[in-house]
Design a protein that fits this description.
Blueprint: H1 7-28, H2 37-58, H3 64-83, H4 88-108
Helix pairs in contact: 1-2, 1-4, 2-3, 3-4
Length: about 110
Amino acid sequence: MTEQRYLSCIQACSACVIACEACAAACLREDDVTMMAACIRLDRDCADLCRLAEALMVRGSDLAEETCHLCALACQACAEECARHSHEHCQQCAQACQRCAAECEAMVA
């Protein structure tokens, strides 16, 4: 069973994965995809790290906290990049990433 202390962080990671994947997909449909390249790369990196952090927390891995620290860094970088763009999908992703970064940082504190 998942440790209760991880629950809110797992939920934030899950929401962040969804937001990042949706943002990356929407960025690929923008007129100037080249301008969105950094956003797409960070969306994908962030989603992958959130998935990994989520899995390690669910299984109670000894590496969960270290992975959550790295996840928080990725989420913060993604949030900063997405916040630079006015697209609604980027703004929603930035918010999800900020929440996830905060949850991951709180979990490892």
